[in-house]
Target: Amino acid ABC transporter permease
Amino acid sequence: MDFINAYSPDHLTFLLEGFWVTLKVAFISIILSFIIGGIFGILRYAKIPVISQIAAVIVETIRNLPLLLIIFFTYFALPEIGLKLEIVPAAIVALTVFESAMISEIIRSGLNSIEKGQMEAARSSGLSYVQALRYVILPQALRRMVPPMVSQFISLLKDTSLAVVISLPELMHHGQIIYAQNINYFVPILLLVAIMYFVVNYTLSILARRLELKQG
Model:
């Protein structure tokens, strides 16, 4: 094991470049999956004839597919039907599709956790269904959704490493390039990569626990 040369300034800079790609892909995917997952979660909660059933089928189908398969499909299969994506957009699309399904279930469960009497009381006070959902149900549900959402976003950050199969230039991919130069770099680089993931994910875990305690 060669820690000194493995941690050279060039190698550290290269790893940080990969880590930046990891954070960027994760951040964009989190924003998009929250929006799309929110729409699907509300559609399922609202039980709109036909539309809610279609949303449920889509969500359950995606939730029961491995993320790796979705990544492969996005990057290799979509070009066959004329939709070719570069590596970074393909990774973002795949992660967004998968995480949207997970987030939609969290949102649906959060909405369902609010007592039905709350909706009935809001409607009886003269609010429309949409107004009751927006001003009464959602604010309460969102507080309960935050801890599981943070946990899901932690999973998303770790899942970016799966995009190494399409050569996404993220942290794990850059780590592989470095230790491929010298087998003595293998353990030092993997150790540093693990520490970098741990620091970010552990920070988010602490945040999730504190939010959960506040809700308790």
